[in-house]
Amino acid sequence: MKAVVIQNGADRQFVAVADLPEPTLAAPDDVLIRVLSVGLDGTDREIVRDRYGVLPDGAERMVIGHELFGVVERAGEAAGFSPGELVTALVRRPCGSDSCVPCGSGQQDYCVSGAYTERGIRGADGFLCEYVVEKARYVVPVPEACASYGVLVEPQSIVEKVWNEIGHIQKRVRWEPKTALVTGSGPLGILAAVTCRSLGLETHVWSMSGRASANADLVRRCGAHYHDAVDRKPADAGSSGRPNDPSGSGLDEYAAVHRIEPDVIWECSGHPPLAFESMKLLRPNGVLAILGVTSGNGRAEIPIAALNQEIVLKNKCIVGSVNASRADFETGIRRLQEIERQFPGLLAGIVTDRLAMEQVPDLDFSAIAVKAVVDVAARA
Ligand SMILES: [Zn+2]
Fold first, then answer.
1. Mean pLDDT of the chain
2. Ligand 1 centroid vs 99 CA: distance in angstroms?
3. Per-residue pLDDT tens for 82-122?
4. Count of Cβ atoms closer than 10 Å to residue 60 Cβ
5. From ligand 1's centre to the CA of 375, what distance in Å?
6. What are the chain's domains?
7. How far is the CA of 95 from the centre of ligand 1 (A)?
8. Listed residue (129, 92, 139) closest to 114, CA to CA
9. Separation of CA 102 and ligand 1 centre (Å)
10. Distance 176 CA to ligand 1 centre (A)
11. What is the pLDDT of residues 189-200, one digit of tens each?
C-alpha cells in the first residue's frame, strides 16, 4: 500500500511516498481501517519541513499523519465495530511505565514519564497511508451525519479537552462567562472561536492572518469579531507598533480601546509573548488556556510583578493543554454537529486545500490557505 513516510537518509531525514505491506488483523480487538482522509496541522508542518518526527526505536522510517478519518474495512470479533462504520482514532498511546499514574488509568494525554508514543508524530506509525490497524479501544466511531467534516474531529478534541479543563477549574466559583478572546486564527483558533460562538459567548479573534484572509472570513461567519494584528491603526498600536516585537504586540492597548474584557483566553498563535501579555486583559477569576506551542528558545521581557498581582489578586489561572482523551473526541463530535446546525457549511469551509499523498513530500505549508487535508481514498 501507499504511505507517506519520514525516513532516515544518509545525512538527514526526508519525507517520501513509500510502498509498505498492508497491515492485517492480528488480535480479536483489532480494527482494520481504510483511510479516507488525513488532516495536516502545524505538527505535520514541523515533521515535513523541520524533520521533527521521532522514529520508532530501531526503525528506518515512520508513516506520518495523525488526524485520521476512515471507514472500518474489517474488525476482530471482540472489537465491537462493523465494516462500513466511519471512524477516527486517538493519537497518543500510554507509556507503559508502572510509575505513570495517568497512563495507568487511561489518561495518557496527561502522561508524566514523557515516554508516551504518538501515532505519526513520535515513535509509532501514523495514519497517512491506505490501511491502518488499530486497537478498538483507540478507535472512535463517527456518525454518518458528520461525514463531511469527520476529519476535524481530532483537532476539535483538542478544543474540547481545554473547555473541559476550564469547566473543572471554574467549579471553584459561580462563573458565568460572557466573552472569549482567541489569539491566532489557524484551524485550532477558528475551531476554538466557533466553539465559543456555539456556546453563545461574545468572541474576539486577534490574528496576523489579515482581514481579507479566508481565516478572517471564517471567524466573521460565526459571528466572532476579527481583529487584525497586522494593520492596526497607529492609535491602537502597542508600545513598539510592531505586532511581532516581543516587547509588546499592542494587544493590551488595542483591547483597552475596544473594551475587550475576556473571561477566557485561548492562546492558539504559538507566539508566547501574546499569552503573557493577554493575562492582563482577563476579567477577575478568568482562565488563560495555552494551546499554541513554539519550538526554539524565544525570549521576551515579562513584567513579572504585574503578572504576579494579576494572578494572585484576581484569582487568574493559566492552564496548558496537549492531546485529548476518548471523551474529548466524543464531546468533539457532538460539538461539531451543534456547530454545523448553527453555522451550516462553516466546518467544511475550514478545509481549504485538498491534496493527494504524492503532494505531501514537497508541500509548501506556507501556501495553505487555512487547512490542508490529504484525500487517500473515496468512500464507495
Ligand atoms: Zn505515561
1. 93
2. 8
3. 999 999 999 999 999 999 999 999 999 999 999 999 999 99
4. 10
5. 33
6. 2-141+351-375 (3.90.180.10), 157-320 (3.40.50.720)
7. 4
8. 92
9. 6
10. 35
11. 999 999 999 999
